[in-house]
Design a protein that fits this description.
The structure holds two protein chains of two kinds. Helices cover 0% and strands 51% of the residues of chain A. By secondary structure, chain A is mainly beta. Chain A has a six-stranded parallel barrel with strand order 5-6-8-11-9-7. The radius of gyration of chain A is 16 Å and the shape is globular. In chain B, the strands form two sheets. In chain B, strands 3-2-4-5-9-8 form a six-stranded mixed β-sheet. A three-stranded antiparallel β-sheet of chain B has the order 1-7-6. The longest helix of chain B is centred in the middle third of the chain and has 14 residues. Chain B is of the alpha/beta class. The chains are: A mainly beta, B alpha/beta. Chains A and B meet through strand 10 and strand 11 of A and helix 2, helix 3, strand 3 and strand 6 of B.
Chain lengths: 144, 218
Amino acid sequence: MNIGKSVVIKGELNGSEDLTIEGQVEGKIELRQNVLTIGANGKIKAQVFAKSVIILGEVTGNVSASDKVDIRDNGSVDGDIAAPRVAIAEGAHFRGSIDMQKTGGAKPGDQAHKVEQKTETKPTGAPAQAGPQTGATATAGAGR
Amino acid sequence: MLSDLLRWGGKRPRQPDASGTAPASRGEAPPMPSKAFPKMLAAIAAQPDPAVLLDLGPVIGSNVEFFGERLGCKLHIEDLFAEFDRHSRAGTLDELPKVFDTRFHHADGSVDGILCWDVFDFLPKAAAQSLARQIIRMLRPGGAVMAFFSTAAGGTSGFTKYEIVADGLLRHRQHAGAGGQKHVLANRDIIRMFEGLIVSDSFLLKNNTREILLRRKS
């Protein structure tokens, strides 16, 4: 499902399928079992909870993912990230904290570890066709 | 051995140096050894888990992976180079001390490690002092600060990104931005600026940069 760039949502957005947002959302987004993609035109001022979050647009607010947060080139996040895996591409903007929720991190001096440079990749997978299940407080209207 | 000498005309074959252990990416400078960085990591490791780390440079994906995924640190990113660049372009560098006084919301003594990279090379004196005050305020007892200081004043210079390649290797990469005039701080100026912290290690690199590790007593 795509939320187009002329759409503005203020309130709570819940869903059980993958979602791509090109418009504006203010409030809260919950897709706990699914992938949320903030498109290049997307502007989010919200708390975000999802299985996986791919950010090509702008997010202001905290982002929490049970799997991965991926900030692509030109993507921007002002807020705190909590996820087991975080990838940030060259050219992305980030200000905030990152908590990868790992209690058993290896200690410095572990020479076996190899750091790999993050390489930018295009988003994979087309968004789902059906619409999101918006929460009771969600309101949508034509923007700008 | 003799056959080797004859084969190479009396010259030894070129041996890879320490910096050659990790290959450079195409078009990038090879990584440079760092003596202070492993000590910084050791200081962080000695702190209670999860260590809280503050990075004052631009966000780099592989560094986030290194600190977050490998070491399990809680990482805070405050890109002061972008802040400097913005004020430099706007001609408002004199506002930086006030910006630094209010920018950091970390509680006193709440940060285990602070990566300053070479930000002090670019800052005017008042801004550098303001930032140093904040660093001293935020650093937890036993915590460590790593910073690079140039030994030669230069003309305008672009920014550098420091990408962690391994525990003792950093790749210095050019970073887009206006940069600015590099200031040289004498060792005594650094010690005065960070009054309350101890210079625990200081290394002069081949490129005439000083790597300095500052610690707060436990």
